[in-house]
Amino acid sequence: xxxxxxxxxxxxxxxxxxxxxxxxxxxxxxxxxxxxxxxxxxxxxxxxxxxxxxxxxxxxxxxxxxxxxxxxxxxxxxxxxxxxxxxxxxxxxxxxxxxxxxxxxxxxxxxxxxxxxxxxxxxxxxxxxxxxxxxxxxxxxxxxxxxxxxxxxxxxxxxxxxxxxxxxxxxxxxxxxxxxxxxxxxxxxxxxxxxxxxxxxxxxxxxxxxxxxxxxxxxxxxxxxxxxxxxxxxxxxxxxxxxxxxxxxxxxxxxxxxxxxxxxxxxxxxxxxxxxxxxxxxxxxxxxxxxxxxxxxxxxxxxxxxxxxxxxxxxxxxxxxxxxxxxxxxxxxxxxxxxxxxxxxxxxxxxxxxxxxxxxxxxxxxxxxxxxxxxxxxxxxxxxxxxxxxxxxxxxxxxxxxxxxxxxxx
Length: 410
Ligand code: ASP
Ligand code: MG
Known about the structure:
Blueprint: E1 3-8, H1 16-31, E2 35-40, H2 46-57, H3 63-87, E3 92-95, E4 103-104, E5 113-115, H4 119-126, E6 130-134, E7 137-139, E8 145-147, H5 153-164, E9 168-173, E10 194-196, H6 197-205, H7 213-222, E11 226-230, E12 238-241, E13 253-269, H8 274-284, E14 289-294, E15 301-309, H9 313-327, E16 331-344, H10 354-364, E17 371-375, E18 378-384, H11 388-398
Parallel strand pairs: 1-2, 1-9, 2-6, 3-6, 9-11, 10-12
Antiparallel strand pairs: 4-5, 7-8, 11-12, 13-15, 13-16, 14-15, 16-18, 17-18
Helix pairs in contact: 1-3, 2-3, 5-7, 6-7, 8-9, 10-11
């Protein structure tokens, strides 16, 4: 008998029919003798709808009230799921974030969980009651309602699992696990049985949208075994754990991020302080910068290139034109039709030549690499957006990730 936290996302609780199916699933798990706590999101699309309502009545952001508004989405689903459980003869009780003391800091709209009190939850679990907890929300020190940022229910679930010292935190969703690549793009993408926290963090932040990256960070920190699995089909899903000493495949997965843009300031003086003068105003905008590349200088001049989200492209150019004049740089240019493809794997640590294999594979398809960046367990390349899918498929094949490829490999 163990303690398990289930988290159901917006799609899984998107209608009363689905909520009833979720209730059946929870009842089945309880019948195993497990102690189950549940965290839910708002019904799919509801948070967007509430956001639009808020924007409709006020054109300036009013963070405290926006949080009260957004938190209401999860209040609906905790009640409905609890009612569906009780209807099935399973004792259950719904809780808003504040009612189980999910204490956060006071940063409305992006609050961080600081503390969770488990007293009430343990009491319920000990009596065979399923606590159903609103995800995505908490309460600050002064008692104000806060929200954690979009996708925040994953983080709530992990925080609850950590506080309860649960055996597993199951993120139940509309896909049956984490894949070697996006199956909508790569036909023979395969579900991974296991992936490490580190790899998942790279895959999550690189745009494989299965889990919010903050929840993975949290789970890694508190060593909460996390499993991504389907709400509606039985299956083992993907377990996210600490690195095992089992031999790791060189590459575990390939992520892609479309909708990127790159900006180059050419002919900037190669002197101290230039990077900070270029990226300072961008950071303060605030515009998020991803890859940064600076050439080695020649003739005392250098080129400086970085990438941003495509939505920020025009604004970044506007911000930088006065900076260019100020620095006396030759030219400001850019390209907003680029994408990033990244191969990720902890096995890279112990295998040389991964980068070369990737570059050779891309060259064989005549795909030009515009930028490269690496970390210990990741190699990212920027390519023209029209080659993104091809790059993804050819990297997937090169590293033997396709269906059936896992056989004979441990
Ligand atoms: N309902 C919130 C959202 O849509 C939180 C979540 O689903 O995780 O972002
Ligand atoms: Mg979600």
